[in-house]
């Protein structure tokens, strides 16, 4: 499906607003302020530990509880963070926070068990069933086992062997784990219960995290979907493996979606309720329809080709910081890999994308270049330049090496660089951009990474 679109180019350059800096600053203030409060709670003399080992266990337990709160906020899809920091960075934070939780889960019970085994004068392993007789402790142990399961499925080798749908279903147990962890803290959190002030702080913190999750992932999407009544209005195959889905509804202009953003999409009645995928808009929103284009990778994306017209659509969003609001320079370089062309193609329709524009599109073969016809028309209408980079990556074909990028775009350090593509490609490009001294504020990246 190829169309020629006239791009209304404005004369006002879009400049970085400073919203991202504000978001980073608030995140650091939140983390540092809570770290200070946790240290005060740990040092409270009114709740002395039984011995040094249990004191260390309590220390790790406090930070484990707080890290769980942070993880809950990260999976809560807080629009303030999604739109200013971006999905790519938040997914990285989610991943590293998950590994921090795993090690805290190892350290917290280990030191508690060592401390009580010393007090009870029994072995470490004998202390495990001894403490497990207490229901709150047993629930904590179950929560720890669930965290271990999620950590195993997050290891790179395991992720590669699992479909996105299977990985996502496994990580739904995070909600069970959180319930068990909260119950465990209610009954076993001695530092938390040291005073009414610490209790109020701790449960206000959890209320904030759980409230953010419920509001952003349940209540707001329910209200928006009830208002917009989204339905599939057309399904258009683009290649043998890619398909575009056009979604219509009421008052879509009130969604305030921007080119470069994405939604989390569900198709109730066509796929299981828990199957949700983040797909970018592949065309600029026009107030009448939204379009997503997906490649058949998992079972949900492969099934899009068979969606009946009229199928109900449930969407969460819009999210993402890959928009012209992040621009800092007049000229722009857009880089896409595979199906990552979708937000890049939408950005080409954004009237705020002014100045000289260069597009680098990486595809295995020309036939694999999804939306290539539309892309050429948009580039021609805008007076931009398109480089289609094909072929297998070999020693002689390194399209994203510093030398190749400089050869294609000599003034790359003077441009904003937008990138959407697979994680490995994003890592390579970022390494080259650093070597070419492209400032971090000019790099705007969304990579394909697993997220919940």
Automatic annotation (TrEMBL):
GO terms for cellular component: membrane. Its main location: membrane. GO terms for molecular function: 2 iron, 2 sulfur cluster binding; flavin adenine dinucleotide binding; metal ion binding; oxidoreductase activity. It is a multi-pass membrane protein. Residues 225-325 form the FAD-binding FR-type domain. SUPFAM superfamilies: Ferredoxin reductase-like, C-terminal NADP-linked domain (SSF52343), Riboflavin synthase domain-like (SSF63380). PROSITE patterns: FAD_FR. InterPro entries: FAD-bd_FR_type, Fe3_Rdtase_TM_dom, FNR_nucleotide-bd, MRET, OxRdtase_FAD/NAD-bd, Riboflavin_synthase-like_b-brl. Its cofactor is FAD. PANTHER family: 1,2-PHENYLACETYL-COA EPOXIDASE, SUBUNIT E, NADH OXIDOREDUCTASE HCR. It is found in: Membrane. Gene3D superfamilies: Nucleotide-binding domain of ferredoxin-NADP reductase (FNR) module, Translation factors. This is Predicted ferric reductase. It comes from the Bacteria. The chain crosses the membrane at residues 22-43, 55-75, 96-117, 137-155, 167-187, 199-220. Keywords: 2Fe-2S, FAD, Flavoprotein, Iron, Iron-sulfur, Membrane, Metal-binding, Oxidoreductase, Transmembrane, Transmembrane helix. It comes from Actinoplanes derwentensis. The lineage of its organism: Bacteria, Bacillati, Actinomycetota, Actinomycetes, Micromonosporales.
């Amino acid at each position: 499906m190829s169309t020629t679109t006239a791009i209304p180019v404005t004369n006002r350059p879009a400049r970085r607003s400073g919203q991202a800096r504000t978001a980073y600053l608030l995140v650091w203030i939140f983390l540092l302020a809570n770290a200070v409060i946790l240290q005060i709670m740990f040092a409270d003399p009114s709740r002395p530990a039984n011995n040094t080992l249990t004191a260390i266990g309590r220390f790790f337990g406090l930070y484990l509880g707080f890290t769980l709160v942070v993880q809950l906020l990260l999976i809560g899809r807080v629009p303030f963070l999604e739109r200013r920091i971006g999905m790519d960075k938040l997914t990285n934070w989610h991943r590293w926070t998950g590994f921090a939780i795993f090690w805290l889960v190892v350290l917290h019970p280990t030191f508690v068990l060592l401390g009580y085994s010393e007090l009870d004068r029994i072995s470490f392993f004998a202390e495990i069933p001894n403490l497990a007789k207490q229901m709150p402790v047993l629930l904590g142990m179950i929560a720890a086992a669930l965290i271990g399961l999620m950590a195993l499925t997050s290891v790179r080798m395991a992720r590669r062997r699992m479909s996105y749908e299977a990985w996502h279903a496994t990580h739904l147990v995070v909600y069970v784990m959180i319930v068990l962890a909260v119950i465990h803290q209610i009954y076993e959190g001695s530092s938390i219960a040291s005073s009414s002030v610490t209790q109020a702080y701790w449960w206000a913190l959890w209320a904030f995290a759980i409230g953010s999750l419920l509001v952003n992932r349940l209540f707001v999407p329910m209200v928006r979907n009830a208002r917009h009544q989204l339905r599939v209005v057309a399904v258009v195959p683009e290649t043998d493996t890619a398909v575009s889905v056009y979604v219509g509804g009421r008052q879509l202009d009130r969604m305030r979606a921007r080119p470069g953003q994405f939604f989390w999409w569900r198709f109730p009645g066509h796929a299981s309720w828990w199957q949700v995928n983040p797909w970018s808009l592949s065309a600029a929103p026009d107030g009448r329809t939204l379009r997503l284009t997906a490649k058949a990778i998992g079972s949900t994306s492969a099934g899009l080709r068979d969606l009946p017209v009229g199928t109900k659509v449930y969407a969460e969003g819009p999210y993402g910081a890959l928009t012209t609001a992040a621009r800092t320079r007049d000229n722009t370089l857009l880089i896409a890999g595979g199906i990552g062309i979708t937000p890049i193609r939408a950005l080409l329709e954004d009237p705020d994308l002014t100045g000289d524009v260069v597009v680098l599109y990486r595809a295995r073969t020309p036939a694999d270049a999804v939306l290539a016809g539309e892309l050429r028309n948009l580039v021609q209408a805008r007076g931009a330049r398109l480089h289609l980079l094909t072929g297998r990556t070999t020693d002689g074909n390194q399209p994203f090496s510093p030398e190749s990028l400089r050869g294609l775009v000599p003034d790359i350090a003077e441009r904003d660089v937008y990138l959407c593509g697979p994680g490995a490609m994003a890592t390579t490009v970022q390494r080259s951009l650093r070597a070419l001294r492209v400032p971090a504020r000019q790099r705007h990246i969304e990579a394909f990474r697993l997220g919940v």
